[in-house]
Write a structure and sequence with these properties.
This protein has 98 residues and is mainly beta. The chain has no helices and 8 strands. A 6-stranded antiparallel β-sheet has the order 6-7-1-2-5-8, with no helix packed on it. Strands 3-4 form a two-stranded antiparallel ribbon. The chain starts with 10 loop residues before the first strand and ends with a strand.
Length: 98
Amino acid sequence: MAQSIKPLGARVLVKRVEADEKTAGGLFLPDTAKEKPQEAEVMALGTGGRDDDGKLIPFNVKKGDLVLISKYGGTEVKVGTVEMLIISESDILGIVSK
């Protein structure tokens, strides 16, 4: 069980934002019936990717951003007691406006 993780390359450490446990009709959903949430908070950024000339490509997201991610992408990791994902920046579909 890791205490902290620093992603490498063009990877991003994110924590999924918990989905609603209740439907619009007021029914409570058990964990087995819930879909994986697609919204996540950026917790840490990697060292960055490089282009063909070796120049550093800046990230489009920053720590604290709320992002939309693909449902089944990334690698699940546990940091302390919290489950997180390490994903490629290319698996981030967009930034959610607050």
